[in-house]
Design a protein that fits this description.
With 143 residues, the chain is an all-alpha fold. It contains six helices and no strands. The longest helix has 24 residues, at 32-55. It starts with 12 loop residues before the first helix and ends in an 8-residue tail after the last helix. The model is unreliable at 1-12 (pLDDT under 50).
């Protein structure tokens, strides 16, 4: 007898938030630019949550959110295509690397300088990405 019952109908409440949605996954696979935008938004959100945790001295939770930020940066790096025709990919790699270094420094910092630096970089990238998608008609203009 195993102790893990994967077929149980009762699930932990936190896991219910992460149910797979085949239709959404297919839509994102067909629109990689929107996927990048969502990843950038997720990294910014996790950074802001880490700042709140830092301010309330919830250091375990802060570490959790910093780890998620690192995971998202890894996913963004995985989407880069390095060729002679894509010099922007090399620039993005450097920005992602710097933001990741800031996140690593933020783990032990007493203030939030490095964390705020990472969030600022990712926010600017997100905003630029969103603007590009709006200008090319891939994302509706916000009212």
């Amino acid at each position: 007898m195993t102790t893990n019952n994967y077929e149980s109908k009762a699930q932990a409440p936190l896991l219910q938030e992460y149910q797979r949605n085949q239709e959404m996954e297919q839509h994102l696979a067909e629109n990689p630019r929107k996927t990048v935008l969502l990843l950038l938004q997720g990294a910014v959100d996790k950074g802001n949550l880490a700042k709140i945790c830092h301010q309330s001295n919830a250091l375990v939770e802060k570490g959790f959110h910093l780890g998620r930020m690192t995971t998202i940066l890894d996913a963004l790096r995985d989407r880069l295509k390095f060729t002679q025709d894509t010099p922007l990919a090399y620039d993005l790699e450097e920005l992602y690397r710097y933001a990741d270094q800031c996140i690593q420094e933020a783990v032990f910092e007493k203030e939030t300088f490095y964390l705020e630096s990472a969030v600022e970089i990712l926010t600017e990238l997100r905003d630029a990405w969103m603007q590009m998608m709006q200008q090319t008609g891939q994302l509706p203009e916000q009212a």
